[in-house]
Amino acid sequence: MTVVFVVVLAMLCLAGALTLVRLLRGPDTLDRIAALDVFVILIVAAASVYVAIYRDGSNIPLLAAVALLGFVGSATATRLAERRKGHR
């Protein structure tokens, strides 16, 4: 089972690196917002793998709160970016 965890964590690290590239190079503000949202999701997924490895469910409410905060933050930032883009 540890091989599966290592493979999943490696894939999450690769996805995180690609997301950071999009975050830094993103030609538009909305691309950067989407990259931040994906990065938050990847952090939650990596923390979920940690919960699965150590079989410690005490962090699950924290994971749900971080995921919800990431969603609300990205939705709000997208709305503000679109509103600012419309005023130009």
Automatic annotation (TrEMBL):
Keyword Ligase attached: no
Ranges that cross the membrane: 6-24, 36-54, 60-81
Major place of residence: membrane
Classification via InterPro entries: MrpF/PhaF-like (IPR007208)
Record key words, sorted: Cell membrane, Membrane, Transmembrane, Transmembrane helix, Transport
Compartment list: Cell membrane
Recorded topology in the membrane: Multi-pass membrane protein
UniProt record similarity statement: Belongs to the CPA3 antiporters (TC 2.A.63) subunit F family.
Protein's name in the database: Multisubunit sodium/proton antiporter MrpF subunit
Species: Pseudonocardia adelaidensis
